[in-house]
Amino acid sequence: MLDILWLLLCTSLVFLMQAGFMCLESGLTRSKNSINVAVKNIADFGLSVALFWALGYGVMFGSSWLGWLGTSSFMPNRDDPQTAILFLFQAMFCGTATTIISGALAERLKFTVYLAIAAWVSGLIYPLFGHWAWNEGGWLAQLGFHDFAGSTVVHGVGAWVSLAALPIVGARRDRFSMEHINPIQGSNLPFSVLGCLLLWFGWIGFNGGSTLALNDQVPGIVLNTMMAGVAGMITAALWSWVQQRHVEVGFLINGSIAGLVAITAGCDSFDTPIALVVGATGAAVMILTAQRLARLKIDDAVDAVAVHGAAGAWGTVSVGLFGAEIDNRLAQVGVQALGIGVSLVWAFGATWIILSLAQRFVSLRVSEADEAIGLNVAELAG
Amino acid sequence: MLDILWLLLCTSLVFLMQAGFMCLESGLTRSKNSINVAVKNIADFGLSVALFWALGYGVMFGSSWLGWLGTSSFMPNRDDPQTAILFLFQAMFCGTATTIISGALAERLKFTVYLAIAAWVSGLIYPLFGHWAWNEGGWLAQLGFHDFAGSTVVHGVGAWVSLAALPIVGARRDRFSMEHINPIQGSNLPFSVLGCLLLWFGWIGFNGGSTLALNDQVPGIVLNTMMAGVAGMITAALWSWVQQRHVEVGFLINGSIAGLVAITAGCDSFDTPIALVVGATGAAVMILTAQRLARLKIDDAVDAVAVHGAAGAWGTVSVGLFGAEIDNRLAQVGVQALGIGVSLVWAFGATWIILSLAQRFVSLRVSEADEAIGLNVAELAG
Amino acid sequence: MLDILWLLLCTSLVFLMQAGFMCLESGLTRSKNSINVAVKNIADFGLSVALFWALGYGVMFGSSWLGWLGTSSFMPNRDDPQTAILFLFQAMFCGTATTIISGALAERLKFTVYLAIAAWVSGLIYPLFGHWAWNEGGWLAQLGFHDFAGSTVVHGVGAWVSLAALPIVGARRDRFSMEHINPIQGSNLPFSVLGCLLLWFGWIGFNGGSTLALNDQVPGIVLNTMMAGVAGMITAALWSWVQQRHVEVGFLINGSIAGLVAITAGCDSFDTPIALVVGATGAAVMILTAQRLARLKIDDAVDAVAVHGAAGAWGTVSVGLFGAEIDNRLAQVGVQALGIGVSLVWAFGATWIILSLAQRFVSLRVSEADEAIGLNVAELAG
Asked: For residue C25, what are the contacts with CB-CB under 8 A and spacing of at least 6?
């Protein structure tokens, strides 16, 4: 029962990450779009949990068909407490992977198209890759791929789907002008800071619960998680200070989250000083990626690809580089890179194909006029 | 100790529902009233917990006098850990029942009158009905009335008191004009979405803790709770889409909460697919009720009567209709209906009488001028 | 493992107090400074946890050198679960002590100077005083000083540092004019109410976890905590009503927090009716202090000194006055007063000296022009 209590607590904590993403993204976008962003953040939760219940949980954690696909445990019922709690905990993860996308594509993506992408991720992309990596019979798991709580499985997948959609959907119209990158001010940055702290709060459960049991490892996992977030924040703050002579709030927020994303794959296998290094370097990787993407005129409204994708990939590789119990580092780095590569091919590739096809038939983004008015009014009355 | 830990966790979760209601209601009201709403939401918590400690807990859970009234356990002290934790958990429920009223009557009810109503509910109405339904010696409990975590006991009672007060206090002056129903825009809808998510977070404890112990039922209860909220949200979203060609944020929020309210009575007795049905139909009942009340020119500022009263009543009846362990469905439906009827007579009836009398002597609502300026300024400086 | 689970839960709860302080302070300050305040609140968390990991935890809880200084347990690693969880829980306390200062000095203190003060507190002032009072070998602990969860150790220390800095840094330029005290309106009071509720939520863990184990005392401790907050709120509300004929939101918020601060020292040693008295009188002490400080033209932007310092000192003394297991009340009151005196000499005195010296070389506050523009723009772009 102690394990069940621990997972119930962790489920609750991870549930609150939905509120965290909502606050973060709503505050980072302009007030003319902030309600629309909030609505996407809550609607996707309903959709993804429903799909994960009907389909995804079974595909991901059901008995494996040749390592590729789960074939049991669909529609968990209350009469099996063990499955009920595992489903609840994992459903929050599916919701997390999905909601990452709403931030990246904020302020231009059509609501209905967003829901379609959310269904695509939570019904297909996430559970299948999750099966490969996290089902004990999954083929990546069998190869020794180690992604403890989902730097790649959860955060990477959400980021790669975003990355595929971003160039197809295109940048916000005010974002790039000729040679310039125009910063777009958030409407409510204290709300975003609240979001960051709620995410951090949830991460205690995200990583701490991924043992699926309350054992001696848990305090160390939470310790590593906390310190990596701290190291990410400090690194980003220093970077901001050196580069701009002030500490930008976006750096503090995204630095913290990048540190947390980076540690997620190996929070169970690093000594704590290493966890600090992984968090700090995760933040650096995030900043470099965000700046690179901006120069490439890829307009990620909250730098979600950099935070969840790049820092997550780095964290996944770092398990091979620095993990305490790794025998053959080179081989492990190879497996880790393979896992990342597969997640890219699958989540980025399949999404890119489907959206490229889809845009021949439907418009993925709102009209120019609607974008100018703002999506609060154009798409949704309050 | 495991049970105590579980109840401490659930108490904490349910406590945060106070923050949930505050964010929800403050965001759904106009900025000229949003602080006033927030103040009511925090002040009523202090008042209701104080009264529940002094009086209500004993009335509700003390040894029963003929099934009508508790006569012991007043003013719980720290030297009895068992009573301390039960009081804490139940005090949060009393606070929930009370705070529902602040939203329904927002933007016009006098602060002092609101406090008087809050005292009336938490000192008298709620504990007495609670005794009848939840004390093991209570007369409704003895008849077999089943309201597991309070669809009627908590949510219904708060809603019926609101329903009695609404026509007496009257609509906001801008709400209805001749034939028209004028929608009143909330001031901060992302804040309301945060409130909805905090309520949802709290509901894990609200329903999960109502076992008063950590047993094998708990994961299933939380599963049913989560899925009913999801089903309520999806139903309301589809309804909004079909009726208005867009998904209104109010539908998403209130649909989720209505699903959660509806499942509260029977989260321990439905199979999970049934929980989805109860959540979905709960949202439908909520929408039909909200639209009916608006046509009747009853101006519920946050649709609290529809969300907590109508969906709660439906959820209470559905225990008889769909509960897994019900032998005689007809008889059980009868008892459930009786319980709802009693809650109506008592909470609605007694409140209606007392407020009808009271309004002969004092004005229940703020002056027209104050309503125009807004209650932030008129009633309370920051 | 049950104790570890309890501490993990409490750590999570106390972590969220960071969000509580951020919302509270950001909402109570003007919008031109609200982002700056939020940034200080998150940046100091990173800094203080990093320093507490590297240095402070060992200084505070390492094996004692003559009762003055810890000399072991620096840089806790994941391989020692017991130390990991104790560090995590205590790191949140260090973060709390530090973040109090950001509110008091809001809207004028330079960001870099604030970070320096935060480092000063979390690296030196807090861990050393914490060692004296909370290390079992600490000299104040040996004398019998009883401050269960930190009315003085955490809240007092944060407040005294603020009190030392306030007159040196000076008042906000709009605050006092000739004979008048100009109230400065908060920008987002519902956000502050949310902050207050998040703090209250966190306090369940703050006091409840300070047993460092889940035992029979815990429910009573949480009960006392909850009731003292309620009593503080009601007292402040009545005070506001009597003095101003309306209930000001600031009184509700600060009354609640003052009640919680006051009970923190003795939540383990009062019977519950006494806890109500301590909470109520704590709020009264807070109000009198806040009004006195304002008359002295000491401009505490959120009344942090009154809330955390004065109510905390009163709560610390009240352990001697009303604690249930005290043999020699006079002697205990003396020890309690000694502890408070030492905290004042150390936290106030040392800070006053260092800042007095520092201001000869650097400017501690932003320029007049920057203060007029607001610190959001002047110090930090979003």
From this structure: C37, C38, C41, C102, C103, C106, C192, C195, C301, C302
Q: Residues with Cβ < 8 Å from B62, sequence gap 6 or more?
A: B70, B71, B72, B73, B74, B135
Reference B234, options A272, C131, A47, C189; nearest CA is: A47
Residues of chain B scoring pLDDT < 70: 380-382
DSSP A109: B
In chain C, the percentage of residues whose pLDDT exceeds 90 is 94
| Neighboring chain A residues of C88 at a CB cutoff of 8 Å | 219, 222-223, 226
d(CA C184, CA A122): 48
Contacts of C379 in chain A (CB under 8 A): 246
Tell me the domains of chain B and their CATH numbers.
Answer: 2-378 (1.10.3430.10)
- Residue type at B131 in one-letter notation: H
A50 and B196 in contact by Cβ < 8 A? no
Query: For A55-67, how does the pLDDT look when each residue is reduced to its tens digit (9 = 90+)?
Result: 999 999 999 999 9
Q: Name the residue among C38, C46, C85 with its Cβ closest to that of A189.
A: C38
- At A216, list the tokens: 């001696």
* Per-residue model confidence as pLDDT tens digits over A287-303: 999 999 999 999 999 99
Task: State the chains in contact with B (3 or more Cβ–Cβ pairs under 8 Å).
Answer: A, C
Its pTM stands at 0.98
On whether the CB atoms of residues A233 and A283 are closer than 8 A, the answer is yes
Q: Phi and psi at residue B325, in whole multiples of 5°?
A: -105, 25
> How distant is the Cα of A27 from the closest Cα of chain B, in angstroms?
9
Q: Which two tokens stand for residue C295?
A: 């008359």
Distances (CA, A) of B191 to B21, C79, C174, C191: 11, 41, 30, 9
Among candidates B196, B204, B226 on the partner chain, residue whose Cβ is nearest the Cβ of A49: B226
For residue B253, the chain A residues in CB contact (below 8 A) are 42
Q: Looking at this predicted complex, what is its ipTM?
A: 0.97
Helix C217-244 and helix B81-104, axial crossing angle in degrees, nearest 10:
40
Q: Which of B196, B216, B224 minimises the CB distance to A42?
A: B196
CA-based torsion, A275, A279, A284, A286: positive or negative:
positive
Residue B381: per-residue pLDDT: 46
| All residues at 6 or more sequence positions from C14 whose CB lies less than 8 Å from its CB, including other chains | C89, C92, C93, C96, C202, C205, C206, C209
> Residues of C with CB below 8 A from B79's CB?
220, 271
- C187, C195 contact by CB (below 8 A): no
Q: Judge residue B279's burial from the number of C-beta atoms within 10 Å of its C-beta, 0-12 exposed, 13-18 middle, 19 or more buried.
A: buried
Which residues of chain B does C208 touch, with a Cβ-Cβ cutoff of 8 Å? 8
Q: How confident is the model at residue A380 (pLDDT cuts 50, 70, 90)?
A: low
Q: Which of C132, C61, C140 is nearest to C332 (CA)?
A: C140
Closest CA to C279 of C332, C345, C203: C203
Residue of B nearest to A195 (CA): B194
Min Cα separation C71/chain B (Å): 34
Per-residue model confidence (pLDDT) at position A75: 97
